[in-house]
Amino acid sequence: MGKFIFQRFLTSIIVLIGASAIAFVLLRVIPGDPAMLMLSENATDAEINQMREDMGLNLPIWVQYVDYMKQMVFLDFGDSLSRGLPSMQLILEHLPATALLVFWAMFIAIVIGVPLGMIAAVKKNSFADSFVSVLAILGQSVPSYWLGMMLILFVAVKFNLFPTSGYGTWSHIVLPAFTLAVYQLALIARLMRSSTLDVLNNDYVRTAHAKGLPEGYVLFKHVFKNALIPTITMIGLQTGQLLGGAIITEFIFSWPGLGFLTVQSIQFRDYPMIQSLVIVSAVVFVLINLIVDIVYALVDRRIVVDS
Question: Residue 187: which residues within 8 A CB-CB, separation 6 or more?
Fold first, then answer.
């Protein structure tokens, strides 16, 4: 197990280095000059050049990257150009809101999606199976921005059940969490149905039935555990993506998370802020995948042996 974790850790370090390099280069090749955005429209060329020099943008890109990596070693991610505060401080202020939103979204998706997927598989070709399949397809087809606006229009505005935006109480999180959960719920239900059907066709399940074991015991002792393995992997991947990509939902509901901060940083071409957001998102994504790999190995010990 130790060797398995060490191998995954080394892979994670390589991924983080690659993510930082790609983000650094792409931010500097896209059109636009952050020095001009920091100054007024009447700024002279001399003032713009001085600002670029102060920001280090006049240096070769590889020199800028080396300096940036040196700063990262000491956990110095630079100051936000638009706000004048340390980038990491701003991220830590917005991270709890995003983490809370993602937690409840995935909680809703898992609690509903896993049982629905198993029911659809056990009741294959029945009305329940068709019903779950239709719901899953709809859940993956409906755009999150449209669903969010419809919830605001009908649930919040027309029936006044929940607030349209804000942050602080449980009522504020219901609509954005549900909006974010719908696609994940559908994905989990479909994958759980597929993996459960694969497990049900295995010989050891037939043998368990032939021995006369109760149906519930076979499902939860033999089927559920093995069918859950690919679902665990997908849940980990989706959780990592949501932490770094819940931008649309946060923007629609004015949720003060990392997605909202990302939109503002892009508008101002805030290099240090965007780079810090990319690094933090990559770190979170890698850590979640590392945890998923460990859980995966604990569920199925053959993975450790094969590695």
Answer: 109, 113, 136, 139, 140, 234, 238
Token digits for 230?
């690919």
pLDDT at residue 176 greater than cutoff 80: yes
Name the band, by pLDDT with cuts 50, 70 and 90, for residue 300.
low
Q: Is the dihedral of CA 205, 210, 213, 215 positive or negative?
A: positive
Q: Which residue would you say has higher pLDDT here, 117 or 18?
A: 117
Encoded tokens for 266: 């892009």
- Alpha-carbon dihedral angle through residues 164, 248, 19, 107, given to the nearest 10 degrees: 60
Q: What is the DSSP string of the chain?
A: -HHHHHHHHHHHHHHHHHHHHHHHHHHHHSS--HHHHHS-TT--HHHHHHHHHHHTTTS-HHHHHHHHHHHHHTT---B-TTT-SBHHHHHHHHHHHHHHHHHHHHHHHHHHHHHHHHHHHHTTTSHHHHHHHHHHHHHHHS-HHHHHHHIIIIIIIIS--S-SS--SSHHHHHHHHHHHHHHHHHHHHHHHHHHHHHHHTSHHHHHHHHTT--HHHHIIIIIHHHHHHHHHHHHHHHHHHHHHH-HHHHHHTT--SHHHHHHHHHHTT-HHHHHHHHHHHHHHHHHHHHHHHHHHHHH-THHHHH-
Which pLDDT band, with edges at 50, 70 and 90, does 185 fall under?
Answer: very high
pTM equals 0.78
Q: Please choose, from the candidates 236, 130, 113, the residue with its C-alpha nearest in 3D space to the C-alpha of residue 186.
A: 113
Per DSSP, what are the bridge partners of residue 79?
86
Q: Is the pLDDT of residue 244 over 70?
A: no
Instruction: Kindly report, residue by residue over 30-48, the tens digit of the pLDDT.
Output: 666 666 666 666 777 787 7
Report d(CA 91, CA 244) in Å as an integer: 12
